[in-house]
Amino acid sequence: MSGARSILSRPLAELPDPLEIEPIESAFDLDVTPPGSKSESNRAIVLAALASGTTVLRGALTEADDSVVAIEAVRMLGAKVEVDGSTLRIEGVDGRWRCPAEGVTVDLKNAGTATRFLAAAAMLAPGPVTITGNERMRQRPIGELADALHQLGATIEWHGTAGCPPLTIIPPSGGVPRGVELVFESPESSQFVSALLMLGPWVSGGVTVRITGRVTSSPYLSMTLDLLDRVGSSVKATDDLRLLRVSPESSTGLAGFELDIEPDASGATYFWTAAALLPGAKSTVLGLDARAIQGDARYAGLLERMGAQVELSPTGEDARTSVTGPVTLKPILADLSPMPDTAMSLAVAACLANGTSVLRGLGTLRVKETDRIEAIRNELTKLGVSVDVGVQGDDETITITPPKSGIDCSPDAPRVEFETYDDHRMAMSLALIGLVRPNVFIRDPGCVAKTYPIFWKQLAELYLD
To answer: What is the value of pTM for the model shown?
Structure first.
């Protein structure tokens, strides 16, 4: 086993910090299956916990920090959860959390998705639910969702900075009003809307959301609607997703269900990008193709626009998507508002392109695990790459311009240590630069445990014995 492969294959706690990423010596041909989709798993866990009877989730994300937090949270709220590898068996609470009437506190660490979804689901508790988290979570806005819950009759108490966790949701004594309609102009996060729609099966008359302005991260809304439809809710939506309604199909609530979770498409972007950076290298992600409900599964098409070759599984065959690296990567103009979690991967690809790339629609990156726009600028400039934020006054757009002679990938290129800001996606995307440039080191490599604890072990497979 090569030295790099041996080191990357170690348990997270035994990895060196900083972790050196050695360049790949020859083109690879890798088949890889990322863990279960975080986005789909979190939605399914909350719906299953609220359903009646037993739900079985196969292929779920179970070992990552975010999923562990979500599972423990629904247990605290009364659901019973059994974990067997990537399979979850969840006995739900039939639409009413089984927690103390005097109140319960749920610590969701830095799990943003679970925080939003369970804040809304607190409306189905018998008493106050306090949502808290780590230091970064206490900086991440949730005020817009809290305002909507207040409109539904909840009392909201803030325990720190108003508009950010920790907060207490006190549900209305008479339950959520019948047939409610909520109006957003341009929601800060699609998760606020998804969280409210996921209440729909347990609200007589359902929940309607009207969006009058920009629809934020529309593929994630489509994922929520698709999942709610598959598990037995009544779902109606306009084509532009500006009018959305979720209600019980017949009787109020959901029955337990069985669901196969897709591999995580955001995680797949790192391996597709890795192939795109090395001429002739090929990464095939198993379990994902154009039929996937995750918007990030379309990321391979962006690499195709940059010159990579993309192959999709034929109709009738098991899903897979392959990317093969071109001789030269072309710059790209891309609107990433439908798939913001892919921005770091595409930014790395842009560093190796032969011109200036423009990435738009990055507004939600400011309030992720870190301010990813500033983090991208801080780290890529270490390579001599020019990163400009706020093109023509648009602070949701960045331009990425590599040095005229390209990034220095010579054997004696100066050492670069990338900060990761306790952000799993920064660590995984910046590591890709080390596949083509010597002397690249990743600080705090263990932060990938948030969503992809086996990332380094799978990256090790790129290094041939």
So the answer is: 0.95
